[in-house]
Design goal:
The complex is a heterodimer of chains A (about 425) and B (about 250). In chain A, the strands form 4 sheets. In chain A, strands 4-3-5-6-7-8-9-13-12-11-10 form an 11-stranded mixed beta sheet, sandwiched between helices. Chain A has 2 domains: about 1-325, 3-Layer(aba) Sandwich (Rossmann fold), CATH 3.40.50.12780; about 330-419, ANL, C-terminal domain (GMP Synthetase, Chain A, domain 3, 2-Layer Sandwich), CATH 3.30.300. Chain A is globular and about 70 Å long. Chain A has helices at about 5-10, 15-35, 35-45, 65-70, 105-120, 140-150, 165-175, 185-195, 215-225, 340-350, 385-405; strands spanning about 85-90, 100-105, 130, 155, 180, 205-210, 230-235, 245-250, 255, 260-265, 280-285, 300-305, 320-325, 330-335, 335-340, 360-365, 370-375, 410-415. Chain A is an alpha/beta fold and about 425 residues long. In chain A, helix 5 (about 105-120) packs across helix 6 (about 140-150). In chain B, the strands form 2 sheets. Chain B has a 6-stranded mixed beta sheet with strand order 6-7-8-3-9-10, with helices on both faces. A 4-stranded antiparallel beta sheet of chain B has the order 2-1-4-5, covered by helices on one side. In chain B, strand 9 and strand 10 form a beta hairpin. Chain B has 2 domains: about 1-75 and about 155-245, Rossmann fold, CATH 3.40.50; about 85-155, no CATH class. The chains are: A alpha/beta (about 425), B alpha/beta (about 250). At the A-B interface, helix 2 and helix 5 of A face strand 1, strand 2 and strand 10 of B.
Chain lengths: ~425, ~250
């Protein structure tokens, strides 16, 4: 399988470490100079950026947390003047303010390159037609995949919200060969194909780029068998900074991290100490080339394990195994991460209060993954008329669905249901 | 080929360089740009052994340069073209060039030195015409060529140049830059310090931006040329624009 940028992806390990050290140091010098938040955060620890002499010294620095995005809303974490920012992206945060990230022209170029790497590693070429089918919550990735697909000169059908029938029509008639989609949405897609009596062999589809969530081996095998395709996994972060932080190569054994753009660490989420190579923990990322929105030791909340050894594909980019979340605090709906805290915050805003008992679940409705929210029918939620209850339910569901970018169903439940 | 890690340089108590890491790979032209006083020349002088007050790691071809004197560093394969050329004005062009090869005469490479003298004259034909002339009578551009030629006479594998375009007319700057490109095509590795950031980045593979003794940016030269911050600070845009519009 070809490699998009051989020099960068296959650099010797020795040179990679030197390059990472140089980029970590220049990133620290930039953020220390330009971002008051980081200057204050770093001043909290007795460390000057020049004291980071080895990559391992990064451990001495504090973490960037998701709450910091909201605290510094909107532009507090930008490291370049606003005039250099060419794209501003808003993502739902986990606190009261959304996460606002910016990109310079160069940053967009870096993302284009990373997506191009991931697509090339999956065997996608200029002969392919790529259809991007992501939920509204992953719309930013849609733009990045479009840019990356154009960089490798493939034909791209950008993210457009269409009915299932129209999506299928596009897939069949436009001869889509590559689908960028979350695993659960892909499963739903497969069901539509069968419902529509479409023979998988009659469509041109041969590659699925699975994004946003980690499918089990069973689900991957099922998709590959049902749709007669090969599946490739891409890892990214939906809030910041983008979609192809790591990608699978033809070995399908771990995901290559774009180590020339990110420095990865795996920590024990409880002790916050860096774990030895090969142990499972929380992935922490430091950006190495980002100009507008650099991040120092961002706690991703994702579970991963860094893998030892070289890869037969020839890339020297370190690989990671991406593992399903253990967290009870977060639900993954069609690749979109929804945090419990975030749902509670939205409920409070829409209702004016947070019901005394709530439950958040992932359910399926008409083959579609949805966010199921149970609310205890306490006095404040009780209406004399069914119509009033119905209206409230629809209002809350539509508000939350709009904010979260995933389908939402509200159910009113008696106290006993929560026991 | 050349690797610096966490290099700090001191003039007495004053710290001029605060933990710089950079690398030059075989066959590359690397541009080191920055404002006056950023520490660019200090770094070159440190690498070539002229400044002894430094700490950190400097490796050339995987061997440390710590504790080596300038002649030993020249012997290892690193030559410096210093800022202001530092020629010997009363001496002839030929003698200046021969001085560049002084470590080689001891190694009895006389014949090879003669051949190299020919090559330098091929590279800079104008020097052939002025061979017997005193170096001090040459024009600024010719003196720069002579300074580069003198450095090449030591047969370096890595050439360090400190502000070779300084004070030269634009056509001469272009000529010098074209010469450096020609040297690269012949296999030379070059670390170029230059205030004329545009000229340097146009021929470089990669670049580093030094500010107050720290590297604040690095990357492929074509990206730095297009970078808004580099444009504002080093490619001749108004300083006001740099501070405007900042939230």
């Amino acid at each position: 399988m070809p490699i998009w940028k051989h020099a960068a992806e296959c650099l010797s390990l020795d040179e990679r470490r030197q390059e990472q050290l140089e980029k970590v140091q220049s990133t620290l010098n930039r953020v220390f100079r330009n971002v008051p938040f980081y200057r204050n955060l770093l001043e909290g620890v007795p460390l000057d950026p020049s004291e980071v002499r080895r990559l391992e010294d990064l451990q001495k620095l504090p973490f960037t947390l998701r709450s910091h995005f909201s605290d510094n809303y909107p532009y507090g974490l930008f490291a370049v003047p606003l005039r250099d920012v060419v794209r501003i992206h808003t993502a739902r945060g986990t606190a009261s303010y959304p996460t606002v990230s910016g990109y310079t022209k160069k940053d967009l170029g870096a993302w284009k390159e990373m997506v191009a790497r991931g697509l090339t590693a999956a065997g996608v070429t200029s002969a392919d037609i790529i259809q991007i089918e992501l939920d509204a919550g992953l719309a930013n990735w849609g733009r990045d995949y479009k840019d990356g697909a154009e960089a490798i000169e493939a034909g791209v059908i950008p993210l457009t919200i269409l009915s299932p029938e129209k999506q299928l029509m596009v897939l069949r008639d436009y001869r889509t060969s590559v689908l960028v989609i979350s695993a659960s949405a892909a499963l739903q897609f497969a069901q539509w194909i069968f419902r529509a009596n479409l023979n998988p062999n009659a469509v041109a589809l041969r590659t699925l780029i699975l994004v946003g969530e980690i499918p089990g081996q069973d689900l991957r095998r099922q998709l590959e068998e049902q749709l007669h395709v090969t599946t490739w996994l891409n890892y990214g972060l939906s809030e910041v900074p983008g979609p192809v932080i790591a990608f699978e190569c033809e070995e399908h054994h771990g995901l290559h991290i774009n180590e020339d753009h990110f420095y990865p660490e795996v920590i024990d989420p409880l002790t916050e100490k860096v774990l030895p190579m090969g142990q499972v923990g929380e992935l922490v990322l430091t950006t190495l080339t980002t100009r507008a929105f650099p991040l120092i030791r961002l706690r991703t909340g994702d579970r991963a394990r860094l893998m030892k050894g070289s890869c037969p594909c020839g890339r020297t980019l370190r690989k990671m195994e991406w593992l399903p979340p253990l967290s009870q605090e977060m639900i993954m709906i069609r690749g979109v991460k929804v945090h419990h805290q975030q749902i509670a915050l939205l409920l409070e805003r829409v209702l004016g209060f947070l019901p005394d008992q709530c439950r958040f679940l992932k359910s399926t409705e008409d083959l579609n993954d949805i966010l199921d929210i149970w609310l205890h029918v306490e006095d404040r939620l009780f209406f004399d008329e069914i119509k009033g209850m119905e209206q409230l339910r629809n209002h809350v569901a539509s508000e939350l669905s709009q904010e979260l970018g995933v389908p939402v169903r509200i159910r009113f439940k008696e106290h006993i249901s929560f026991l | 080929m050349l690797r610096l890690r966490n290099v700090k340089c001191f003039y007495g108590r004053i710290q001029a360089i605060s933990g710089v890491s950079l690398s030059v790979r075989q066959g590359e032209i690397i541009a080191l740009i920055g404002a006056n006083g950023a520490g660019k020349s200090t770094l070159l002088q440190t690498v070539s052994g002229l400044l002894s007050g430094w700490e950190g790691e400097i490796e050339f071809e995987k061997v440390s340069l710590a504790g080596l004197k300038p002649p030993e560093i020249v012997q290892r394969g690193i030559s410096l073209v210093p800022e202001g050329r530092m020629l010997f004005p009363p001496m002839s062009v030929l003698d200046n060039l021969k001085l560049g090869a002084y470590i080689r005469y001891r190694r009895k490479e006389r014949e090879q030195v003669e051949k190299d003298l020919e090559e330098i004259q091929d590279l800079f034909p104008v020097l052939r015409e002025r061979f017997r002339q005193a170096a001090g009578t040459l024009s600024g551009g010719e003196q720069q060529m002579l300074a580069i030629g003198r450095a090449l006479m030591a047969r370096p594998r890595l050439l360090l140049l400190d502000e070779p375009a300084m004070g030269l007319a634009p056509f001469m700057v272009q000529l010098i830059m074209e010469t450096l490109q020609k040297l690269k095509e012949d296999g030379m590795t070059i670390l170029l310090v230059e205030q004329n950031a545009r000229a340097a980045l146009q021929i470089a593979d990669r670049g580093y931006v030094l500010e107050n003794g720290r590297i604040v940016l690095d990357g492929p030269a074509h990206e730095l040329l297009a970078d808004e911050e580099v444009k504002r600070a080093y490619l001749g845009k108004d300083y006001r624009e740099f501070t405007d519009g900042r939230m």
